[in-house]
Design a protein that fits this description.
mainly alpha; 102 residues; globular; two-stranded parallel sheet; 2 strands; Arc Repressor Mutant, subunit A
Amino acid sequence: MNSFEKIYCVVKRIPKGKVATYGQIALFAGNPHWSRVVGYALHVNPDPDGIPCFRVVNRFGKVSEAFAFGGENRQIELLRNDGVEVSDDGYVDLSKFLWNGE
């Protein structure tokens, strides 16, 4: 399994109503130094409906300004539809919505 496949497997596990960070995905995929690789993998996500890349935010809880599937506002919309509260400036409260990996 290549690095992108490992990343996609982890992202598929993020439950509805939760988010994960790029670093967290990298760690769970087997290499804590892959944060940027996670970003690259999500940007070319071959199955946005099956691999919920919109549930991945940066280490501060900020959505991506370059969300590949409709931009920042689309990511905010998808997260809110998923039950995640997102501030008007694009932040998720990680103390409330961060996935614990289980």
